[in-house]
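Example for reference:
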Amino acid sequence: LHPSLSPSLPSAMEAPISVVANATGNATAAAVLSGGATNVIIPAVSAVGLVFSLVLYRQVAAVRVAPQTPRGGAGSSSAYLLQSEAGLGDSVEASAAQIQQAITTGARAFLFTEYRYMAGFMVAFGALLFVLLGSADGFKGAHAHAHPADPDAPPPALANAVFTVIAFLLGATTSIVSGYLGMEIAVFANARTALEARRGVGHGFLVAFRSGAVMGFALTSLGLLVLWLAILGFSRYFGDDYRALFEAIAGYGLGGSSIALFGRVGGGIYTKAADVGADLAGKVCAGIPEDDPRNPATIADNVGDNVGDVAGMGSDLFGSLGEATCAALVIGAQSADLVGAGWDAMLVPLCVTAAGIFCSLVVSFVATDISPVRREADVERVLKVQLFLSTALMTAVMYPVLLVLPDNLYLGPEGSFEVMCPTPEAVAANSRCVSGAPLAAFACVAAGLWGGCVIGFVTEYYTSHSYRPVREVAASTETGAATNIIYGLALGYKSTIVPVGVLAAVVYVASRYMSMYGVALSALGMLGTLATCLSIDVYGPVCDNAGGIAEMSELPESVRDKTDALDAAGNTTAAIGKGFAIGSAALVSLALTSAFVTRTGVLQSGVDMLAPTVFAALLVGAMLPYWFSALTMKSVGLAAMEMVKEVKRQFDTIPGLLEGTPGHGPPDHAKCIKISTDASLREMVAPGLLVILTPIITGTLFGVEAVAGLLAGGLLSGVQLAISASNTGGAWDNAKKYVEKGSLVVGGAIQRKGSECHKAAVVGDTVGDPLKDTSGPALNILMKLMAIVSLVFCDFFLGINEGRGLFNMGSTGN
C-alpha cells in the first residue's frame, strides 16, 4: 500500500478507535501491515477478466470473416461475408452477411443517437449535482484539514461536489462503454451463430455462449477496475476519511444507474415497438412469420434485441453492481471498528465481486470444454449447470476472502464494539453488534447467492413451458384470447409469492447478523455470479437474432430447428436472469435506503411509518411504479401502432412484396428503424425525469423523513409489480412457443401455427412483450435509482431546515 494511502485513521474517529486498538493489541497495526492485498487482488482479477474476454472474442472471430465483393470497390471494409466449412461466396452466406450488416448499422445508429442525448444529460445533471451539493456550505473551497483549529471538521461541500460529479461521470461513461461493447459483440456473433448451427447445435452454442461471456467478463471486470481506480485516486485527497471518500464515490453508482434507466427504457421501447409491430403486422394482419424476409419490421425487431436486451440490460446490471458496492462502502464507513481494521477490510465489497469474477471464469470451462453441448437436449442443462456451479464455487471461496474482517464489529458511528456491546446480552439484542464478523458476513453473502438461485429457478418454473403453469396458460387459448389474458395475469400475480418470501428471508438473515451492512453484502452475493448471469442473458438475444437471420436468409429448416432449440433454452435461462436482476435490485434498493437513513444521522433512531409526512410519502412512493409503467406501456403502444401502419402501407404500395412475387421491390427497413428510434428517444424522457426528480423534489420540499417513506413505498410495490409483469409476459411468450411447436392438443387435434389457439396465444404474447421487456425490467432501475439519488443528495437535503425541507415538515432535528 502506498504510504500516501495508508489508513492512518481520521481524527474524527480517534476516540472510539483508540478503544479498539487498546483492546485488540496489535490488530490495527497488523491490518495496516497487510493493507495492500486488495491493491493486488482487485486489479489482477480485473485484468485477468478483461484478457479472458479478449480471448473469447478471438474464439468467436475464428468463424472466419472475409471482405465481401463490395458495392464501393474490392477493398471495402464496411461489408463482410461470413465463411464456414461450406465455402466462401455462396448466396446463403452473402444473405446472412447483408442481414447482419443491416442489424449492426441500425443498432449503432440508434446507440450513437441515444448516447448523444445521454451526453447532454450527463453535462446537465452533473452541473445540477455540483450546484446543489456545493451550495451546502456556500461553496467554501478550503479543505478542513488545513485548519488546525478544527481538525475534526469534514471536507468542504465544494470538495464533495467536485468528486461526486467526477464519480458520476466515471460511472455514466463506464455504463455507456459496457452497453456498447455488449451490443457490438452481440451483433458480431448473431450471423456466426446461425452459420455455425449448420455444423451442429453444439457449434452454434459455443459461438453464442462465448459471445455472451465476452460481455459478462468485460463488463464486470471493467466496472470493478474503474471503481477501484476511482477509490484509489480519490483517497489521495480524502486520505483516510472514509466517510467523505465513499459518499463521493456513491456518485459512481448514480452515474451507472442513470444511464441504465435511459438505456433500459429507451432500448425497451425500441425493441418492443418493433417486436409488437412485426408480430401484429406479420402474424395477425398478413399471416406471415415475424422473421419473414417480406416483413419490413424484421430488421428493426432484430436491432431491438441488441439495443434493449443486450445494451440496456448490461447497463442495468452494471448499475446494480455499482450501487450495491457503493451502499456497502457508505454503510461500512460509519463503523469505527471497520475503519480501524484498515484499507483491506473497507474494500471487502470489491473483493466479493473479484471472487465472483474468478469463480465464473473457472466454471465457464465446464460449458466450453469439460461438458459441452453435444445434442439439443443438452443446451438447457449446460446453461443451468453454469449457474449452479458458479454459485457453489463462490460459496466455497467466500469465507477465506472475508477473513480480512475483524472478529468483532460495531456497525454504527456511536463507538466501538467494546463500548457499545460490553456483554453477550447486548450483542444478542443489537444486530449492529457483530461477534464473529467473517462468519456472519459469509452467511449474508451466501444468503444472497442461494436466494438468487431460488428466485431464478422459481421464475423459470412459472415461465417455462416445461412446467404446468405455462401449459395451463397455453391450454386456455382454446376459448380465445380473453381467457389466455386472464390466466396469464393470474400466473404473474401468483408468481410473486415465493420470490417475495425468499427476499424477506434473505433480508431477515442479513439484517439479523450484520444489520444493513449485511443486506448490502447479500445484494453483492446475489450479484456475485454476474459474469455468468450476463453470459447466459446475452446468449439469449444472440440466439434469437440467429434464428431470425436463419429465417430471413432462407437457411434449411434443419438449421432453423437448431437455432430454435438454442433460442428456447435462452428464453428459459433469460427468465432465470430476470429473477436474479429483480431480486438483486430489491436488495440494492434496501441497502441504499439504509445507507441514506444511516447517512442522515438524524434518522438513526428510526422512522415512524405512521407519522403523517412519512405515511403520505409512502403512499406516493407505492404509486410511482404504476405511473412509471403506464408511461412506458403507452409509449410502446403508440410506437407499435405507427409500426403496424407503416408495414401495412408498404404491403399495399410495394407491388408483389406481400405475395413474395419474384423480383418484387425490397421492403423499406430504414423507415421502420426510424419509427422505433424516434419513438424511443422521444418517449424515454418523461419516465426518466419522473424517477430522477421525484426524490429531489420530495427531499427539498418535505425533508428526509418524507424521502425515507417515498423510497420504502417505491420498493415495496415496485418489486412485486416487476416480478408480476416479467413473469406474466414470459409465460405468454412461452405459451405461444408451446403452441407453435405442436405440443398443444385440443379435442384430439394438434394446434400449430395459424390455428385459432395460436392466434389467441399471439395476442397474449403481444400484450406481454412490453411487460416483460420494457416496464418490468425498467422497474428494477426505478427502485435503485430513486435510492441512490436520495443518498447522493443527502447533504443538500440536510442543509434545508436541518432536514425538514422548505415546508419545515417532519420531526428531524427537533
User: Anything to note?
Assistant: The CA atoms of residues 42 and 354 lie 6 Å apart. Residues 1-34, 65-89, 142-151 have pLDDT under 50 and may be disordered.
